[in-house]
C-alpha cells in the first residue's frame, strides 16, 4: 500500500516535472535544472562530501564507516546530467545506514565528451581505487538509472578480465539504449516522471556514432561470467521497469544470485526523495542491508 506522500509526490511530478522534462531543450539545460532541483532535496545529518584523487572522485559519508570497504557508485541523469552533489543526500543516507563509505566518480557527461568517455571514466575510477589499495572484494559496485547501467557495464568488463567485485546494487538501471523494453510503451502514461517521447533523442545524444547495443552502453547485451550477488530496486510503473527485470534475468541465467524489489507507484529513482518520502527511506534501508550482508564475511 502506497503512502499519502507518495500519491501526492507522483501527482505533483506528473503535472510539473514530467512536462518540464518533455520540454527541456538541451543537455546543458537538463544539467542546470537537475542541479537546481537537487537543492530542494533533504540532506542527512553530518553529511560529508570530499573531492579528492584523480579522476574526479567524490567521497560521501554521514557517520562512522568501516575502514577499507567502499561502494563505487555511479550517479544517474541520462548521461547528460547529475553529479555527486545532486545525489549526495541519497548516497549520504545509504552510507549512514550501511556504515560504508561511498565513492562517487564525477564522470564526463555526454555534452562534455562523447561515448565512450563515461565508460572510460568508470574504468579509471576502479583503477584509482585499486591504486589506493582496495581489493576487488573491498568494492561493491552501485548506480542509479544511467549510472546503474554504467556500473553493470563496468562489472561485465571486470568479470571478463577475471576480476570479481564484491557485489552490485542498482536503482532502476538503464540497461538497454536500443529501447526494446515492453514497459516503454506499457508504462508511457503511468510513469510519473520520465517522458518516453524523449528517449530516442537522448539516446542519439549519448551514443554518438556507437551501436546502441554496444555492451559498454547497454549492459543488457553484455556477457557476464560468474557474476557476484546483485540487488535491484525498480518501480512497477516506470518506463524502464523492464530494463531492470530483463537485466536481473540475464544475471540469473549467468549463474548469479539476484534479488529484485518491485515497488508500486514510485517514480524513477524514488530513493533520492529520502526525507520526504517514507518509501525512499524503506528502500534505502533494504539497500543498506544488502551492502552490509555483502561485506559481512570481511567485516567481522
Structure in words:
- This protein is globular.
- It has 10 helices and 8 strands.
- By secondary structure, the chain is α/β, with parallel strands linked by helices.
- Helices cover 39% and strands 14% of the residues.
- The protein has a single domain, classed as Alpha/Beta hydrolase fold, catalytic domain (Rossmann fold), CATH 3.40.50.
- Strands 1-2-4-3-5-6-7-8 form an 8-stranded mixed β-sheet, sandwiched between helices.
Kindly state the mean pLDDT as a whole number? 95
For CATH, the homologous superfamily is named as: Alpha/Beta hydrolase fold, catalytic domain
Which parts are unreliable, with pLDDT below 50 for 5 consecutive residues or more? none
Biggest β-sheet: strands ordered side by side in the sheet: 1-2-4-3-5-6-7-8
β-strand amount: 5-15%
Q: Which CATH top level class fits? A: Alpha Beta
CATH architecture: 3-Layer(aba) Sandwich
Query: How far apart are the termini?
Result: 37 Å
What is the number of beta strands? 8
Overall number of domains? 1
What share of the residues lie within helices? 25-40%
- CATH topology value: Rossmann fold
Q: What is the count of DSSP helices, taking H or I runs of 4+ residues?
A: 10
Major β-sheet annotation: 8 strands, mixed
Brief rundown of the structure:
The chain is built from 10 helices and 8 strands. The chain is α/β, with parallel strands linked by helices and 300 residues long.
Amino acid at each position: 500500500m502506497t503512502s499519502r506522500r507518495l500519491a501526492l509526490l507522483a501527482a505533483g511530478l506528473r503535472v510539473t516535472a514530467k512536462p518540464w522534462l518533455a520540454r527541456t531543450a538541451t543537455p546543458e539545460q537538463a544539467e542546470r535544472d537537475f542541479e537546481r532541483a537537487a537543492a530542494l532535496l533533504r540532506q542527512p545529518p553530518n553529511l560529508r562530501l570530499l573531492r579528492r584523487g584523480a579522476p574526479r572522485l567524490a567521497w560521501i559519508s554521514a557517520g562512522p564507516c568501516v575502514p577499507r570497504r567502499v561502494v563505487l557508485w555511479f550517479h544517474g541523469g541520462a548521461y547528460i546530467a547529475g553529479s555527486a552533489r545532486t545525489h549526495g543526500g541519497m548516497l549520504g543516507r545509504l552510507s549512514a545506514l550501511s556504515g560504508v563509505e561511498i565513492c562517487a566518480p564525477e564522470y564526463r557527461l555526454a555534452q562534455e565528451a562523447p561515448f565512450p568517455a563515461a565508460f572510460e571514466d568508470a574504468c579509471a575510477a576502479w583503477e584509482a581505487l585499486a591504486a589506493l589499495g582496495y581489493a576487488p572484494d573491498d568494492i561493491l559496485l552501485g548506480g542509479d538509472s544511467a549510472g546503474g547501467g554504467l556500473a553493470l557495464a563496468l562489472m561485465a568488463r571486470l568479470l571478463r578480465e577475471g576480476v570479481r567485485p564484491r557485489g552490485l546494487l542498482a536503482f532502476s538501471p538503464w540497461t538497454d539504449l536500443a529501447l526494446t523494453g515492453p514497459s516503454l510503451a506499457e508504462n508511457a502514461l503511468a510513469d510519473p516522471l520520465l517522458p518516453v517521447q524523449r528517449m530516442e533523442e537522448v539516446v542519439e545524444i549519448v551514443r554518438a556514432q556507437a551501436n546502441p547495443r554496444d555492451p559498454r552502453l547497454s549492459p543488457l547485451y553484455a556477457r557476464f561470467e560468474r557474476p557476484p550477488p546483485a540487488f535491484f530496486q525498480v518501480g512497477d510503473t516506470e518506463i524502464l521497469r523492464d530494463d531492470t527485470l530483463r537485466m536481473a534475468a540475464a544475471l540469473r541465467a549467468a549463474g548469479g544470485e539476484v534479488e529484485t524489489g518491485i515497488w508500486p507507484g514510485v517514480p524513477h529513482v524514488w530513493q533520492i526523495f529520502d526525507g520526504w518520502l517514507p518509501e525512499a527511506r524503506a528502500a534505502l534501508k533494504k539497500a543498506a542491508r544488502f551492502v552490509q550482508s555483502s561485506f559481512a564475511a570481511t567485516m567481522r
